[in-house]
Design brief:
heterotrimer; A mainly alpha; B mainly alpha; C alpha/beta; C: 35% helix
Chain lengths: 283, 290, 274
């Protein structure tokens, strides 16, 4: 964007020149880095960690029964070399991916159909609204009875959790497409096929991506729940096991691991989603 | 901003409401009602055919519809839980009490903290990092800590349920505050509002739509964590009952417990939504314009 | 009405520095607005007129120059100016609180500053609303009103605070032409009845001449005042003024100046700075 500086004013020119000097720019970058926000964040996290570490001598009730950060780090170093930790990771991850993908494969088409087709919406939506409030965890016994292997029972619960989210987000996104886009497409001579692939699907994409990111977070909740209650392998199971044998520091390591995993998988979805919707990256 | 009606949501009829007879007739002839009844009917029919009558494949091992319904309405149920037994209501009460306590606490503290975070940058800078560290950890992973830190049997369950709702509420409240158009702050400045007046008359009402969306999600999160927590460490409550009936192979009762959970979950979310609509009466005028 | 609200802008300058891109929004803007005068600043999008209004209102600070009111210095680079009810703003996109009723919106200013009793404020609110043709809407919510109604309510809200100067930021931009002309007539009636100093910005030349006592043309970025003309068409004015001889003369005189700026702005592909 060009700037029409028409004045011959010396003062203006001087001010501009000053702002282009290296020292000014370095100073600004530096000040940005050490912004108040960052400083306060560091302060608050350090304070919390400090209080946690020295909870016992400080006599903070409750917190002193929790292993201190140093103990947790020690446990972490032990755990990180144990094979069952990494196999647990792998298994939990596998379950999530399977359940999640199946949820998308059923949920997205179903959601699109329901949004475009009034009859299917009218018949299917009420039954969805009846089944959805039942917490997926409550489905665990049925899942165990129905599926021959524990693995499939756990995946089913992951599927359920993600399914509701992706369905609602897809329906929501597809039904809010501004009519003018569809009309523009039709007046330009597009077939129903074109309409679907070039208008409806891309316009629904942002909602689908949001549904995926949220669904991914939910999936981690579900897999942990299912593994703790009904599993015999995986990170969730490891967490519960550690609790039952009293290795609390290990419990905390598992908690943090799952948290990190969940955070990164959601972030990954969002990034990949950004590639699927390039028109939004101007934000 | 014009609002175009979405095909998936039927516009509400505007205009004077007719007599009871008129409204009943309108209800009976509404195609959406027909479709809904049809869909639900198909579901129950499929349940009956697949599981009760023909016991197809693996469906045979699942709870039977007829047995479940019969159990639910019988005066002397085989497994001791029906509409007419005290035990049913004991479990319902236990679960409702926990959800109610946890939800109220989470609402109060979550909204307060969320608003403070949106209002004061210093508060945000101090609290956001801690929040972002704690939030990705699945709620159920907190169970061991809850059991260690909180005394007794009830408190860990309530604490866990509280935590789930707490994070969701804070997040949505924060989003709500951030979503308020800056022009309203400028108007308040011009009008000479004090900080407190801005908070009470601009920030809180402005964030309310997002807050209530968050509260509905939080309610769902409450029921989810409650069931899991009850299974893992409870002795009463609907979630516990679901597990117990699985253990003792009392399938009809399991269905009763699950259905009750679903019903309570739906009703509680609807209650939140209704309260929200009453508090945000100004939005009626947009909706009735469709 | 006391003869207050004289506004003096001298050598105002504003430099933005977003992300190191140096932007001169205003450059040596000088303008004198007499008490109770209706002054309109006209210019193409992005010329800086909103920046100038924000500086007077107190939402933004000048980097150069001064703003004084009634002889007292309000703002300069060393003196920060805060927004207040003495310089009420009517915003472009509408800032009526959607979650409050019309009556609350209109009376909140005087009530919050404790300048009036509730009954008195309600009475005055009703009176002013009736004056612009709004009856029986005091319990409605803003979203239920039409565009023209909302603008009028917002104007009344501003007036209720008895400001020294009223600032209008392209308030009728979103209205259709017919509604716009009716609302403009209401506005003029209001000020014929109770004059106030008005600082009004717009991109619409006809609107400017129709409403103003004086019209100032602002150049495209960096904005400065190019030309000021007194509009000596007698008041009260109605829509017939738009086709009168004097109106067309003034329009011709200003039209060339503003068209030149519009072309420059178009070629530079300017977008309105917030």
């Amino acid at each position: 964007m060009s700037n029409h500086v028409t004045g011959n004013d010396a003062a203006y020119k001087l001010r501009i020149a000053r702002q282009l000097t290296v020292s000014y720019r370095v100073g600004r970058w530096f000040r940005g880095l050490w912004s108040l926000n960052l400083l306060l964040g560091v302060i608050s996290l350090s304070t919390v960690t400090f209080l946690w570490e020295f909870a016992a001598p400080l006599g903070i009730p409750g917190l002193k029964n929790v292993p201190a950060p140093t103990t947790v780090i020690a446990a972490a170093t032990d755990l990180l070399v144990a094979p069952q930790y990494w196999t647990g990771w792998g298994l939990s991850f596998q379950r999530i991916v399977t359940g999640f993908i199946v949820a998308q494969m059923i949920g997205i088409p179903l959601g699109l159909i329901m949004a475009m087709h009034r009859f299917s919406f009218g018949t299917i939506f009420p039954i969805i609204e009846i089944l959805r409030p039942i917490p997926p965890v409550a489905w665990i016994p049925i899942s165990i009875v129905f599926w021959p292997a524990r693995e499939q029972s756990v995946i089913f619960i992951v599927f359920l959790g993600a399914f509701w989210i992706v369905l609602l987000n897809t329906i929501g996104g597809a039904s809010q497409i501004d009519r003018k886009y569809k009309r523009a497409a039709l007046s330009l001579g597009s077939t129903p096929r074109d309409l679907f692939w070039k208008i409806i699907l891309p316009a629904t994409m942002p909602s689908i991506i949001t549904g995926m990111a949220v669904g991914m977070g939910i999936s981690w909740e579900m897999v942990v729940a299912a593994e703790m209650i009904a599993g015999n392998t995986g990170l969730g199971y490891l967490l519960w096991q550690s609790f039952e044998i009293g290795a609390i520091a290990q419990v905390i390591v598992c908690m943090i691991s799952i948290g990190i995993a969940g955070y990164f998988s959601s972030a990954l979805i969002r990034t990949l989603g950004g590639f699927a919707t390039p028109w939004r990256r101007l934000h | 901003m014009t609002l175009t009606p979405t095909p998936a949501i039927a516009p509400q009829p505007i205009g004077p409401r007719g007599s009871i007879g008129d409204r009943a007739r309108a209800l009976l002839t509404n195609p959406r009602i027909h479709q809904g009844v049809f869909g639900i009917g198909v579901f129950f029919l499929a349940w009956f055919l697949l599981i009760d009558l023909f016991a197809v494949w693996r469906f045979g091992g699942l709870p039977k519809l007829v047995e479940a319904v019969r159990e639910w309405v019988s005066l002397k149920p085989i497994f001791g839980v029906s509409l007419f037994t005290a035990e049913y209501y004991k479990h319902i009460e236990a679960s409702i009490f926990r959800v109610f306590t946890a939800f109220s606490l989470a609402t109060l503290s979550g909204i307060t903290i969320g608003i403070l975070m949106g209002w004061r940058r210093i508060f945000f800078a101090l609290t956001f990092p801690i929040l972002e560290v704690l939030r990705p950890i699945p709620i159920l992973a907190y169970i061991p800590l809850a059991i260690i830190l909180l005394p007794g049997r009830e408190t860990p369950i309530i604490g866990l349920t509280f935590l789930a709702a707490f994070f969701v509420t804070i997040l949505n409240t924060l989003l709500g505050v951030q979503s308020i158009d800056k022009v309203y702050y400028r108007a308040a400045q011009s009008l000479g509002f004090s900080q407190w007046q801005t908070l009470w008359h601009v920030i809180v009402p402005g964030a309310l739509p997002y807050i209530f969306v968050g509260l509905q999600i939080a309610m769902g999160a409450c029921w989810f964590s409650l069931v899991a927590a009850e299974i893992l460490s409870g002795s009463a409550g609907l979630g516990y009952k679901v597990w117990e009936t699985y253990y003792y192979v009392q399938f009809p009762t399991m269905v009763i417990a699950m259905a009750t959970l679903g019903f309570l979950g739906y009703v509680s979310s609807a209650l939140v939504r209704i309260v929200g609509n009453r508090l945000m009466r100004w939005r009626e005028q947009i909706l009735s314009g469709i | 009405m006391a003869e207050t609200g004289q506004l003096s802008i001298r050598n105002a300058g504003k430099i933005y520095d977003p992300d190191g891109i140096h932007v001169v929004a205003l450059q040596r803007v000088s303008l004198e607005v007499k008490a109770n005068e209706f002054c309109v600043v006209v210019g193409p999008s992005g010329c800086g007129k909103t920046t100038l209004l924000n500086a007077i209102a107190g939402f933004d600070q000048l980097t150069d120059g001064q703003i004084s009111m009634d002889g007292a210095l309000l703002a300069s680079p060393g003196k920060k100016l805060l927004p207040g009810p003495d310089r009420m703003v009517v915003f472009q996109q509408g800032a009526l609180f959607p979650w409050k009723t019309v009556m609350w919106n209109v009376t909140c200013g005087p009530l919050k500053q404790e300048r009036m009793a509730p009954a008195e404020a309600a009475e005055k609110g009703r009176e002013l609303l009736a004056r612009v043709g709004l009856h029986d809407i005091e319990d409605s919510y803003p979203e239920g009103l039409s565009g023209g109604q909302k603008r009028r309510v917002e104007i009344i809200r501003a007036l209720m605070n008895d400001p020294k100067i009223l600032l209008f930021d392209e308030p009728f931009r979103a209205l259709d032409a017919l509604t716009k002309s009716v609302v403009q007539e209401h506005l003029l009636e209001l000020f014929d009845f109770a004059p106030k100093t008005v600082f009004f910005i717009t991109h619409d030349l006809e609107e400017a001449i129709f409403l103003a006592d004086r019209v100032a043309v602002m150049t495209t970025r960096p904005g400065t005042i190019k030309k000021v003309i007194a509009v000596d068409i007698p008041r009260p004015r109605d829509y017939r003024v738009l086709t009168s001889g004097r109106f067309l003369e003034i329009k011709a005189e200003l039209g060339e100046a503003i068209h030149e700026e519009a072309k420059k702005a178009f070629e530079a592909g300017e977008r309105e700075l917030a």
